[in-house]
Amino acid sequence: MQAGNITFVILDEILRGTNSNDKRNGTIGLIRKMAKENTFGIIATHDVLVADLIKEYPDYIANKAFESQIIDDELLFDYKLKEGVCNTLSASYLMKKWV
Questions:
Q1: Which of 79, 74, 80 is nearest to 93 (CA)?
Q2: Domain that holds residue 80
Q3: Which residues fall within 8 angstroms of residue 64, CB to CB, at 6 or more apart?
Q4: Strand partners, 40
Q5: Across residues 27-31, what is the average pLDDT?
Q6: Taking the model in full, what pTM does it have?
Q7: Is residue 56 domain-shared with residue 77, that is, in the same domain?
Q8: Virtual CA dihedral for 44, 23, 1, 12, nearest 10 degrees?
Q9: How far is the first Cα of the chain from the last one, in angstroms, to the nearest whole number?
Q10: pLDDT tens-digit profile of 30-63?
Q11: How many domains does the chain fold into?
Q12: Same domain, 94 and 54
């Protein structure tokens, strides 16, 4: 990210090999740096606390999510991008189903 350049970043689960707090802090730090530099991008995360940055940068950040539904004991996806943060607890469902 250098001054005068337009940068577009695509990242999926930043620092996923580290502990949760370190990963969260690193992700938040990177997003703050991107906002300061007016860098654009898409960052995928499962950390709902990172999504709270929308309160700090409401004109810069937009939260989007893919939702799922549990119908007749089956986990189903419509693969449509929706506004906001995913609220479906699909991992909890899967753990209950297979444990």
A1: 74
A2: 63-99
A3: 81, 82, 83, 84
A4: 8
A5: 94
A6: 0.78
A7: no
A8: -20
A9: 46
A10: 999 999 988 999 999 989 999 999 999 999 999 9
A11: 2
A12: no
